[in-house]
Design goal:
By secondary structure, the protein is of the alpha/beta class. It is about 50% helix and about 15% strand. Strand 3, helix 3 and strand 4 form a beta-alpha-beta unit. Helix 2 packs parallel to helix 3 and helix 10 packs across helix 12.
């Protein structure tokens, strides 16, 4: 990222000299000859730091700074001042200026102060992002993830949850589709109403029909009394139908009618029952392919798939592995009364290199097993289940289309380090870069823990 700086001074030689020096440091620099012109540049946006003279005609530097900080609290402003107005500059510092420099400006000092101010600004934004992430985690409860793929999931959920639209959640087994359904209900206006779940694949067609729509006394052998179905029980709330791709064609027809008319009859009954239910469904099947095979009704598919939320498999969101593994480690260490503080670098590399066919469910099982087997404060490769302990990397890196260059570099560095079993020197040699460059990139992309930075 190339930072854009704004230099404001009514003396042409000074502002042009400062601009030239800062451009030499790799910054993009724009100049203004007075405070009003500087304010115009700032108001147009895309400025990361302001360097302004204190005494200027039209609009002084301290008045300009007040405007800037009113609009953008915490924005870095460096004040330039003559020796005779240092006290004024100190006053500006109290008013919110990041720092000040006396004229003539020491360019080395300026370079250092600018770097520190921009580093602080980056920390400010990272802190704000962390706070937003914490707020989002509270909002989505037990769904863990900060990868680009999961951000898209969260974004769709946020937009769709407050509506009445039917939602179809798709994804492989073990990716957390039920957690998404939970969050959708909690984010909806129906959160204080019933949330009923039905796992369609676990019931035979006859039992499923009775479970969904209820039955009258004597409707079939064993129906000794009237039973209300899940559609009645969920009225006013949300009904979650998991594994919707498994339901029988006859039930599909009845389900379609409920979605269209908001009414149905119990099994063996003639009385029409009205219901107000928000439908959320999930499947690990390709329903389009099932339609082609004649196994699933196309009209029902369109009724269910008003909004589609596709939950990506773990192999497509490997950046979330440390977050997920950390959460599972804490959970199972507490559950088993063990003082386990983390996982070592070789384990982390093994977790990254594995393809996780069982997705998050398999990762959770893996961490639970490792916690049980661990006899020290840190999980090692020997503590992992055989599938992970014996896994080997195939030497390939997969990057999907549409990923930007910075993300590509991050993936290449991460997977190369994994391939080299956490050996940084070997990874640097493999990438044909210096070890210091690799360490800097690992820090930049947050691919090392705090403990590893301090080693």
């Amino acid at each position: 990222m190339k930072f854009r700086l704004l230099v404001i001074d009514d003396e042409k030689n000074i502002r042009e000299g400062l601009a030239e020096a800062l451009q030499g440091d790799g910054y993009d620099v724009v100049c203004a000859e007075n405070g009003e012109e500087g304010w115009s540049y700032f108001s147009n946006g895309d400025i990361d730091l302001v360097i302004t003279d204190l005494k200027m005609p039209v609009l002084s530097g301290d008045e300009l700074m007040k405007r800037i900080l009113t609009q953008a609290p915490g924005f870095p402003v460096i004040i330039l001042t003559g020796h005779g107005t240092v006290e004024t500059a100190v006053g500006a510092m109290r008013g919110g200026a990041w720092d000040f420099l006396t004229k003539p400006v020491d360019l080395d000092h300026l370079s250092l102060k600018v770097k520190r101010a921009l580093d602080n600004r980056e920390l400010f934004f990272k802190h704000r992002q962390m706070e937003e992430e914490l707020d989002r985690k509270k909002q989505f409860k037990s769904i863990i993830g900060s990868s680009r793929n999961m951000f898209e999931v969260f974004n769709t959920m946020t937009k769709a949850a407050p509506t009445k639209a039917s939602i179809l959640i798709t994804g492989e087994s073990g990716v957390g589709k039920e957690l998404v359904a939970d969050a959708i209900h909690e984010l909806s206006p129906r959160k204080d109403q019933p949330f009923i779940k039905v796992h369609c694949a676990a019931l035979s067609p006859t039992l499923l029909e009775s479970e969904l729509f209820g039955h009258e006394k004597g409707a079939f052998t064993g129906a000794i009394s009237r039973k209300r179905g899940r559609f009645e029980l969920a009225s006013g709330g949300t009904l979650f139908l998991d594994e919707i791709g498994e339901i029988d064609q006859n039930i599909q027809i009845k389900l379609l009618r409920v979605l269209q008319e908001k009414k149905f009859e119990r099994v063996g009954g003639e009385q029409t029952v009205e219901t107000d239910v928000r439908i959320v469904t999930a499947t690990n099947k390709d329903l389009r392919a099932e339609i082609e095979k004649g196994n699933f009704r196309e009209d029902l598919y369109f009724r269910l798939n008003v909004v589609n939320i596709h939950v990506p498999p773990l192999r497509e969101r490997k950046d979330d592995i440390p977050l997920l593994a950390g959460a599972f480690l804490k959970e199972f260490a507490e559950e088993n009364g063990k003082n386990i503080t983390g996982i070592n670098e070789k384990v982390r590399s093994r977790l990254y290199s594995y393809e996780w066919p069982g997705n998050i469910r398999e990762l959770r099982n893996c961490i639970e097993s490792a916690v049980v087997m661990c006899q020290s404060s840190v999980i090692t490769v020997d503590d992992l289940p055989p599938a992970l302990r014996d896994a080997c990397d195939d030497g390939w890196i997969n990057i999907r289309l549409g990923v930007n260059m910075a993300e590509c570099e991050k993936i290449i560095i991460r997977d190369t380090l994994s391939f080299c079993r956490g050996n940084k020197s070997k990874a640097a040699d493999t990438l044909d870069i210096g070890r210091k460059t690799l360490l800097r990139k690992l820090d930049e992309y947050e691919l090392v823990s705090k403990e590893e930075k301090e080693e």
